[in-house]
Design brief:
Length: 224
């Protein structure tokens, strides 16, 4: 990996950079700078960021860091697409961490998260059957995660829910998960109330996650 002094010349393909309220994770509700990178190796059926599959502009790491700094916000999320497809993403994360930012990286769970600095909050989206991509998950990532990381299951029906519950039972010991686990209903496909009732019926050690940005600005707004 390139180090400071040389890595400033690296470039990344960026779909968009924006400042908004964090809508997901345990950081929901906090102001956050989002760096959405271009490219994804999965094609989930309910994807709400298909525009990030290919569209984007090439940014130097220097200019990218300057843009993030212009918002005067200490929380940054690197997302996609799938950010780990770009070899330079770990360097971007490290440079942000070294500059004092709290860095979240949301990944689709198909790529080894050990590529990332362990100071990152790695939010791993373990795909359920309705995504059409459940077979792409690298379940070893579960065992690579630390207490600051977060696992996410996006749920659109009962089959997805039972898949996620089975995964928890298979992967957790009697003490429960070592990190926060988020159950998120697919917006417009799964009623939050229904998912909430299932979680309560089964007394699951998980957090119900709603996409605050969609509740605030609507389901199709970009740059929020």
């Amino acid at each position: 990996m390139a180090r400071a002094g040389r890595d400033i010349d690296l470039t990344l393909k960026v779909n968009e950079i924006f400042y908004s309220i964090q809508g997901e994770s345990t950081y929901a509700g906090r102001p956050c700078v989002f760096v959405r990178l271009t490219g994804c190796n999965l094609r989930c059926s309910y994807c709400d960021t298909t525009y990030a599959y290919q569209d984007g502009d090439v940014w130097s790491l220097k200019d990218l860091l300057a843009r993030v700094g212009s918002y005067s916000c200490g929380l940054v999320e690197i997302t996609g697409g799938e950010p780990l497809l770009q070899d330079e993403t770990p360097t971007l994360a490290r440079r942000l961490l070294d500059a004092g930012y709290r860095v979240l990286v949301e990944t689709n769970g198909s790529i080894n998260i050990e590529l990332l600095d362990q100071r990152c909050v790695r939010i791993v989206d373990f795909k359920c059957p309705s995504s059409g991509e459940a077979d792409k998950a690298d379940w070893d990532n579960w065992h690579r995660m630390g207490p600051e990381d977060q696992a996410k299951f996006v749920i659109s029906n009962r089959t997805d829910y039972e898949f996620a519950v089975h995964a928890l039972k298979r992967l957790c010991d009697n003490a429960g998960p070592r990190f926060p686990v988020l159950f998120s209903p697919v917006f417009g496909a799964m009623e939050p109330r229904t998912l909430a009732e299932w979680i309560l019926e089964d007394s699951l050690p998980v957090r119900l996650q709603l996409q605050l940005h969609k509740l605030i600005w609507g389901p199709v707004a970009r740059g929020v």
